[in-house]
## 1
Amino acid sequence: MKMVSALLLLSTLLGTPAAPSRRPSCYKRALKDHNCHNIPEGTENLRQINDGLQDHFWEGKGCEVICYCNWNELLCCPKDIFFGPKISFVIPCNSQ
């Protein structure tokens, strides 16, 4: 009887869907009518990080999300996921 109860409990636990992660994830975004080299300044809510990091942009007003441009598509991730927590704090933030 204990074996049946244990199997029932185990099957119930395995059938329960996992809770969604609260950690922000990465996403892709297409650039309409632009590519990495002709994104107009201030367009698409993007700011180039600096000249040393070509094709890397801050998204939005703050400096929490970094986007990497690959031809006509952006891969955007929170900075800690993109660079890792040990490197992300040294990336310059130009939040103008």
## 2
Amino acid sequence: MPAVPAGYTSGGQINKPSCFDRVKIGFTMGFTVGMVTGIVFGGFTGLRYGLRGRELLSTVGKSVISAGGTFGTFMAIGSAIRC
């Protein structure tokens, strides 16, 4: 199924995403980018300190949630400003 464009028509009317929908999409995209960044930097930092196994996964998990939440929040705020 193809993606729906931003100004799709439904019954002859043009429907655009609401401001809240844009903020949710911004947070989701930011959280995803932050998660990838957290995996990369948290993984390299843990390996540099010599962590292995559960210690490494715990450190990477904390950095993923932290980076994802931070970047997602900033993207949501930026999306809200643009509404």
